[in-house]
Design a protein that fits this description.
By secondary structure, the protein is an alpha/beta fold. The chain folds into 2 domains: 200 residues, 3-Layer(aba) Sandwich (Rossmann fold); 84 residues, DNA polymerase, domain 1, CATH 1.10.150. It contains 12 helices and 7 strands. It has a 7-stranded mixed beta sheet, sandwiched between helices. The structure holds S-adenosylmethionine (SAM).
């Protein structure tokens, strides 16, 4: 167990040992001490374990959440070999970084964000429906629901939320968006739940998928991931590793496609590129995604949908041969 600071006291980093072993394999030596980037600092659980994995490691970290910056300030006091940037990882190309030996992305929201009722992610509280990871910019979920055209509502709820009964939810939003109920987490969650007949076997809140889809939409989560992956790969040194922990099938699909493309494999069943045309830039280290054990899920139920995939760069993208 790592030494845990106040900053990460209420966050349980997912697949921690597996992430550290894959990013900093035991026995691997780094001529430059090891230069790493954590794109999703959150509460710093993974960051701290990485900093403790090697004496000379230098860790850069990013998070778009202003409160993550506060937690990172505590880290800066404790670790000289740590630098934090509050920014969206979609803009990582603007950072001047050395060639990296490892990059981590632990996607989605942190427990800090989910558990802080004022952030407006939960179903329970009578607080404004916000859901922005970076609450210093962008539009709140409430504004999105009031102003979005039907096509965007469908993208959020059907495509990103994968809500089977999306039509009922979209119609309810459109019919009720002038009212007050749409403004608050608890009243909106109730409005969504009322779209469905009660199922006593259902374990999750009936608004879970709708909330998830809206969150993914307003934070631009899938686009950010798609745009950041090639930029991050480019920043890796040959031999450097990219580790992704995703929590949603759509994220995992983007990661899998990107990994296959870099490894010179067909990205999906429609990919007709010939074997001769493919170039191998990377080796996939996880044939199947690594999943949390039963005991991890028991200790940390939020880990239940996590999937870890890892890749090692074998060639720079500028080189064809
Ligand atoms: C699952 S948490 C990471 C938890 C962290 N690994 C830990 O051990 O504490 C994901 C974090 O990534 C941040 N995040 C998500 N998407 C981001 C993006 N596009 N740019 C920057 N940060 C992002 C969120 O604000 C959140 O703090």
């Amino acid at each position: 167990m790592t030494d845990r600071t106040q900053a990460n006291a209420s966050h349980c980093p997912v697949l921690l040992d597996q992430v550290v072993k894959l990013l900093v394999p035991p026995g691997k030596s780094y001529p430059n001490g090891g230069q790493f980037l954590d794109c999703t600092f959150g509460g710093g659980g993974h960051s701290e374990a990485l900093l403790q994995a090697g004496e000379k490691i230098f860790l850069y970290a990013i998070d778009c959440d202003p409160l993550a910056k506060k937690r990172a300030q505590e880290f800066s006091l404790k670790y000289e070999n740590f630098r934090f940037y509050q920014m969206n990882f979609v803009e990582v190309g603007c950072l001047k970084l050395p060639q990296l030996d490892g990059v981590l992305m632990d996607l989605g929201v942190s427990s800090f964000q989910l558990d802080d009722e004022s952030r407006g992610f939960s179903f329970k509280h009578h607080v404004p429906l916000d859901m922005r990871m970076d609450n210093s910019r962008g539009i709140r979920a409430e504004e999105f629901l009031r102003t979005a055209d039907e096509r965007d509502l469908i993208t959020a709820i059907r495509d990103y939320g994968e809500e089977e009964q999306w039509r009922k939810v979209v119609n309810t939003i459109v019919e009720n968006r002038a009212g007050r109920s749409i403004s608050y987490c608890d009243t909106f969650a109730k409005m969504v739940a009322n779209c469905f007949s009660k199922d006593p076997r259902q374990k999750i809140h009936p608004a879970t998928k709708t909330f998830q889809g809206i969150r993914i939409f307003i934070n631009g989560e899938l686009r950010a991931l798609e745009m950041a992956l090639p930029v991050l790969f480019d920043k890796l040194a040959v031999g450097g590793r990219l580790i992704l922990v995703s929590f949603h099938s759509l994220e995992d699909r983007i990661v899998k496609k990107f990994f296959n493309a870099m490894a010179g494999k067909a990205i999906d069943k429609f990919d007709s590129q010939s074997v001769q045309e493919r170039v191998v830039f990377a080796k996939i280290l996880t044939k199947k995604p690594i999943l949390p054990s039963e005991s991890e899920i028991k200790n940390n139920p939020r880990s239940r949908s996590a999937k870890l995939r890892a890749l090692e760069k074998v060639k720079s993208c500028g080189t064809k041969k």
